[in-house]
Amino acid sequence: MKNKENKNDGKTRGILKLSFISFIVFSLGFMPLIIYGLVILRFISFNEIWHFFLLPFLIYIGIGITLFYQLLISGLFIHIFNYKYKPGLYPYIYSNKMAYKWTVVCNLYTPMRKLLEIFPVGTMKYRYYRMLGMKIGKNTLVGGTIMDPCLTEFGDNCTMGLYAVIYGHIHDYEKETILMDKIKIGNNVVIGAGAFIMPGAVIEDDVKIATGAVVTKGQVLKKGKIYAGIPAKEIKVKKS
Predict the structure, then answer these.
(1) How does pLDDT run across 90-109, given as a tens digit for each residue?
(2) 226-228 and 233-234: which strand pairing?
(3) Which residue among 70, 77, 86, 200 is least packed, with the fewest CB closer than 10 Å?
(4) Which residues, 6+ apart, have CB-to-CB distance to 170 below 8 Å?
(5) pLDDT for residue 50 is more than 80
(6) For the chain, what are the domain ranges?
(7) Strands of 15-135, DSSP E
């Protein structure tokens, strides 16, 4: 009974701490928007019709300011306070250091990830990923969804298609554990749209992954090969 009470107390403290962190980070991210709004109201009184024609442009600029500072502040927070988790199998409880780091990052990163899927932000996207601990090589295009940036590594000249997803974690709700593992992607790799790559996967140089393929946990894709299917299997290319 005592252990259950301690567990519940730890969960309550963890939730409160998580809520406090989220409140501070997102509030700081909105501060520039508030300042921007006050400046606009100082110079534009909106007492003439033509002022209202400016509204769409002002709103668009406000969205850009909000997105930029939310990415910057959440990324800096994770980077400065080192909220980066490492590979391993951990109990999925707030008292576990790595599981809690994952929870904090998930809470701060998930809204930003959704925004990145909607708004084009150019190189800011890659700078944000790097702040979160992701390694990205030269001339690499990440068009899909990265669930765990700090566990993901891309080489040079890679292309990741839209709707492709890279997972660095797996939950086991029955055992109350979370498995985290790195995903290593070599140079000159092409990941087709809608492909899924699971924790621990190693994709060697010059590999091509077909649309909708599923690279399973811990699977190694050999250099220069083409893979497709569920699970991903090598495709033999017929020589003409």
Answers:
(1) 999 988 999 999 999 999 99
(2) antiparallel
(3) 86
(4) 178, 179, 198, 199, 217
(5) no
(6) 1-121, 134-240
(7) 88-91
